[in-house]
Amino acid sequence: MNPTLRFVAALVVLGSTACQAQIVLDPDDDGGCEEPRPETSGWCPPVWTCMGGEWVDTGGACPEPECPSTRPEDGAACPLLDQQCSYTEAVPCGPQGQVTSTCTESGWITMVSYCQPDPTCPDAMPQPGTDCSGWDYAYFCQYEVACDELALATFSCDYATPTPTWKIEGEAPVCGSCEAAGDPSSCGANLGCVWRAPGCASEGETAIVEGCYPAFDCLNAESCPNPGEVCTPKVYDPCFGSMCDACGAVVGVCTLP
Predict the structure, then answer these.
(1) CA 127: distance to chain centroid?
(2) CB-based contacts of 160: which residues, under 8 Å, 6+ apart?
(3) pLDDT number for residue 130
(4) Where are the alpha helices (DSSP H) in 95-195?
(5) Contacts of 57 (CB under 8 A, 6+ apart)
């Protein structure tokens, strides 16, 4: 037999009117609630009492647990799902600001707003395809190029390659023909050209023929500058002229079929 709590209001008059609430426990009334009783778990678990045929939580109010005094590490255990705690700390690239830690099923997770640092660029224009290791924020680096007319070339450090290498954003100004350059030095003197050596090609791949090529990587026939050319994948040595241990990478080269 589950006892039931019954609330009885009694009016007491003692010189002035007052109202008292009395809780009467009737051990002979099981309340008619169905078993099993609701789940009891989590932070501040409920206290289920059968009242009038329904399970009622009589545990009372329960405050949230206190936030950690310092911002918790991501993944650290937390007691109350969706609880949020705010902290004031230095934000990268900015002044002090508020960061919020949220209790998730995977533990504490803190969302921090990061900004993009200003670009850091070499004073002298780099050679496309050469190593740019150490230039962590090299993007949108612009340099003037004098061919038939003054032009701008935009460089960035490409970290998608086995070794970070300088690449030209968009079309590079080409001063003359890349194919006319017979050695790496004369090829490198032309901004829009890069010297490529053959890399280790797997079965079904074709290694590039060593020589001077346009610096851009074609994607399809429409990106080739001359009519009738197709974009053909070739395997080249990305470590030519630089210290790295990569064997081969693929570049799109415009060729006649």
Answers:
(1) 30
(2) none
(3) 79
(4) 184-188
(5) 46, 47, 48, 49
Q: What is the mean pLDDT of residues 185-205?
A: 82
CA distances from 198 to 19, 92, 100, 125 (A): 95, 43, 52, 25
CA dihedral 50, 54, 58, 59 (to 10 degrees): 100
Beta carbons within 10 angstroms of residue 171's beta carbon: 15
Which of 105, 104, 73, 71 lies closest to 86, judged by CA?
Answer: 71
Q: Which amino acid is at 256?
A: L
The reported pTM is 0.39
Q: What is the spatial distance between Cα 58 and Cα 206, in angstroms, rounded to a whole number?
A: 77
Domain ranges of the chain: 4-57, 64-115, 141-255
Task: Compute the chain's Rg from CA coordinates.
Answer: 36
CA nearest 175: which of 215, 145, 218, 195?
A: 145
**Lookup: tokens for 174:** 């080409």
Q: How far is CA 246 from CA 193, 199, 212, in A?
A: 22, 9, 20
Say if CB 233 and CB 250 are below 8 A apart.
Answer: yes
Query: How confident is residue 229, by pLDDT bands cut at 50, 70 and 90?
Result: confident
Q: Which strands, in side-by-side order, build the sheet including 150-158?
A: 141-146, 150-158, 165-169
